[in-house]
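## Example pair
The file below holds two records. Each record gives the amino-acid sequence first, followed by its C-alpha cell line.
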Amino acid sequence: NPDAYNQSLINMAIIYYSQNEFDIAQSYLLQCLNSDSKRNDACYYLGKIFLYKKDDYSALGYFQKSATIQPGLRLTPIDTSKIKLNSVYYISEILLSKNLYNESLNIINAIITQYPNVPVFYSQMGKILAHQNKFREAVYYLKISLQLNSSNNNEAMKVLHEIRNKINDPQVDRHRSISVFSTSKSNALKTY
C-alpha cells in the first residue's frame, strides 16, 4: 500500500524533526514527495525545516505548495485543512519578515474570507497593520481575534501590548494614536 508507506516516511520524518535531526527528516520527506507529489503534509514539514535552517526562499516555496496542493484520497487520516491554514500563517510570517506588507495582507484577507472564524488570522492581520503603524485598524482586528478566542490568545495580547508601548513612545506621533483602543468598526477602517 503506497499510502501506508508514504505515511511511514512522514512519521519517521516527524520523529527526526522532533529530535532536531533536520537533514534526516528532510531526506524522509523528499522520499515521500518522490513517491507522492501531492502530500501537502510533507511540503509543510519541509517548509518548517527550511524555516529553521533560515532558508526563507525554500520555506516559502514549500509552504505555498502545501497551501495550494489538492491531496488525493488517502487511506491514512490527515487534517489537510489544518496543514493548509498553518502553511498560510507561515507564508504570511515570512512575507512580514521581509516587510512585504501588502502581499501578507492579501494572503490573510483571502484566508479570512474562506475561514472567517480562525482567530490567529485576525491576530496576524493586526500584527501586519501594527508593523505599518496603522494602530486603529490593527486594534480592530486584534479585538475580533480576542472575541473569537479570549482564553488562550497570546499572540493578540502580545501585539496589543506592543501597540500600547508604541503609542506611549515619544517617537510616535501622538495625534495619530489618540483613542486607538476605543475604536469602532467604522473608525478602525478609516485612514488616520
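Second record, same layout:
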Amino acid sequence: AAAAAATVTAEGRGKDGATETFDVIPGVEISSAATFTIALDIDYYGVLYVASSITIDQLALEVTTLAVGASIRIALYDATTDWQPDTLVEDFGTVSAASTGVKTIAPAAGTRVLAAGRYLTAINSNGGPVVRAFRGGARYIGLRSALSASPFPERLQVARTYAAFPSQGTDWSTYGTGSTPTNWFVVFRVSTP
C-alpha cells in the first residue's frame, strides 16, 4: 500500500484581532533580545526555515544606536543544504541607520510568497550602527563540532563591500561563537500563514 502524504500545518502568526500582527522569524524560537554592532562591509546571514508557504508583506529591524549617514541593506536568499546563500530571492533595498527606531521595508511587489524551504536573510551596512539582535534556537544550523562552553554559531558572515546584493550569494566563511544562541536581526510580518 502507498504511504499517505504528510500534511504540513501552517505555522501561523500572532494577531490580536484588530490592531497588531506580531512579527516572526520563520523556523526560529526566540528566547531573548540583545544588541549587536554591525561592522562596515560585512554580509551577516540569518537562517530561516519555512515549513509551509507563507506570504510576507513587511520586513523590519531595529536600530538602537545610529551611525551618522549610514544605511543598512536587506536581502533574502535561497539557501543550500550547507546553509550557504544560493540564488537571490529579493534585494529589498535600504533602511536608514542614521536614526534610531524600528525600520520597515516592503517587498517591491507589496507582498512576497515564500514557498516551504531554506532561506537566509542578509544585511550589510556602510556604517557601524547598533541593531537589536534576537537570540534563539533554530535546529537547522546546529552546534559547532567542538561543542565546549561556546557551541553556538552566533552569526554567519563574510566581508563584502557595501553595495546591492549579488544575484548569486557570497558564501559566509566566518562565524562568531559563544555561549548564547544565534543572533537574528531581520523579522517578518506574515500576511498569510
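Notes on the second record: The mean pLDDT is 90. The chain has no helices and 13 strands.
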